[in-house]
């Protein structure tokens, strides 16, 4: 699959493990597939997600912005009030993470900005997925460095477009941040314990 990445599982459930010297985490991917009935809004998935950030939804193969759906327990509601057209193929991907969390970074393109700052350091390009107006962006259209994602020349997101960056952040890597201010932490060992 890639350096430090392994995959296992069959059928609708796949497990991807990301490992490394200072990072690591496991993501179990649950795929839930449906064919919508007339104006269907609610879809029961295998297990309840921790956050809307842990879900990816596709209608007839088109990625849906997170503002188009919500969840309660293991019930996902899509297009509240109007539902989904009859016969639509609905695929709900649930990213169940262990020793990691799923972070959503959202932006609006202006046609010229190439670099977007993210909340957490990107340890590996394989830990991110980028969408512009719901269209998946291939990894050769951008690069990552630290907390920045930069699109290549000529690939700036169009003006008014919605850019979503989904980042799987291994929590072991976040523990490295505990050393950001050694003097402060050493003077208050409880602060270090609380952080870890």
How are the secondary structure elements laid out?
Blueprint: E1 5-8, E2 13-19, E3 24-35, E4 42-44, E5 55-59, E6 62-63, E7 69-72, E8 75-78, E9 89-98, E10 100-108, E11 115-117, E12 128-132, E13 135-136, E14 142-145, E15 148-151, E16 162-170, H1 171-175, H2 182-187, H3 189-195
Antiparallel strand pairs: 1-2, 2-3, 3-9, 4-8, 5-6, 5-9, 7-8, 10-16, 11-15, 12-13, 12-16, 14-15
Structural write-up:
The protein is mainly β. It is 9% helix and 44% strand. The protein has three helices and 16 strands. It has a six-stranded antiparallel sheet. Strands 10-16-12-13 form a four-stranded antiparallel sheet. A hairpin with a 2-residue loop joins strand 12 and strand 13. It has helices at 171-175, 182-187, 189-195, and strands at residues 5-8, 13-19, 24-35, 42-44, 55-59, 62-63, 69-72, 75-78, 89-98, 100-108, 115-117, 128-132, 135-136, 142-145, 148-151, 162-170.
According to DSSP, the number of beta strands is 16
User: Into which percent range does the helicity of residues fall?
Assistant: under 10%
**Class from secondary-structure proportions:** mainly beta
Seen as an oligomer or otherwise, the chain set is single chain
What order do the SSEs take from the amino end to the carboxyl end, as H and E? EEEEEEEEEEEEEEEEHHH
Low-confidence stretches: 174-196
Q: What does the overall shape look like?
A: globular
Q: How would you write the strand order of the largest sheet?
A: 1-2-3-9-5-6
**What's the alpha carbon Rg, rounded to whole Å?**
19 Å
Largest sheet: 6 strands, antiparallel
- On the 0 to 100 scale, the average pLDDT is 80
Q: Strand fraction band?
A: 35-45%
Q: How many helix segments?
A: 3
- Report, as a whole number of angstroms, the end-to-end distance: 31 Å
